[in-house]
Amino acid sequence: MPHTIRFQIDLTCLDKLYPIGFFSFYIISFVFPYALIAKSAFLVIITFCYAFALMFTGLRIKQGLLLPFLTTCLVSIFALIYIFIESGIYGILNVEFWFFISWVLMFFSSYRLISKGNIGYLNVFFLCFLCFQIFLVLGQVSMKVTGFGFYTLSEFSESANYQYSNMLSGSFVNSNDLASVCVMIALFFMLNRERSERFYGISVFLSFLLILATMSRVSFIAFLLVYLYFEARRSFCKLIFATFAFILLAVVFYYCANEVYGKYLPLDRIVDRINSIASVASGGVSNDNSISLRLHSYLNFFSVFEELGFGSVRYQDYSQFFDSSEHSIGLFATNPHSFVFEVGYWLGWPGLIILLGFFLSFINLERFFDSVCVIVSFILISCVSSSIVGGFAFMFAFFSCALSVATTRKKGQHTY
User: Taking the domains of the chain in order of start, what are their residue ranges?
Assistant: First the structure.
């Protein structure tokens, strides 16, 4: 009887290597800001290799995660169809193509690492990412203060305006993008505290420092709310202590920053952003131009909801849903500053229905509040960046959060 030879690929190595693909994207983007091919090459290669391996390897997925997987595929496929309708085969040259095709791969990479007991690898990966960003931010602070250090990527970007020049953004052009990733990474460690005990303290602290450095107001508030929520579940006394510690730290930092106001531009920006929170709290959103414009844009979405239909079809061209006479909100016709609204403008009602199914499919009834926390955090934090499309680190952190909740029960028992 002839022997049958079966070729089986061990995906464990690729499961771990795939996140490094987009980590390298951020590293090379910072080192070679103009080298589009160089910074995308490794990401494209590892994406092809991982996709090829997944297609030709027998994969098993827990029955309870079949629906999240299918909705992830639906969102990805529907977005890719629109990309090809608009750009044809040349759509593969756009970053949004690689972003949405990566959703399924991120799902599998996160799921397999967690289900194979490699959550420790995710802990190290996210901690390394935070350390890298801290290193860059410190270098950018040094450049602003001493003239020696790292430039911000906004100085190499033609699309970035002068407002970006004082941002501390790490390997991102906009500091809001860095802040949103840090909140999601911090959420991952809070959700998996029992399995990330060695890395929990330093990772959450570094996330907080980076959020403070970027001074993204929504990210800052979201981080505090999520942190206090998890501390309240553990102990009321710890909640009181944590609240007091954060208030004390914020007061000391604000006082010190005020003492040197006018000398260091990045610190001046942080102080101004903190003052703007107090200004909005006392005088309403009209006291802050950025917040009032965003609110106006969000209200516009609901006013044109019945007109969305099948969307604009054209990515980042949603001007048909905005009043052309209002020049002040032209930016929002390109980047609506909300992933949900961007899907609505771009993919229309079908896209919103699929996205709603995507969110609902990740709800784990045994960890209902944690599931809701992840989904609400995603929706809220996606309003921080101009657009999360192209935010590979953000989406990978989201899938890691969502799947770590979906695969465990209340007491941390695995269900994979």
Answer: 12-406
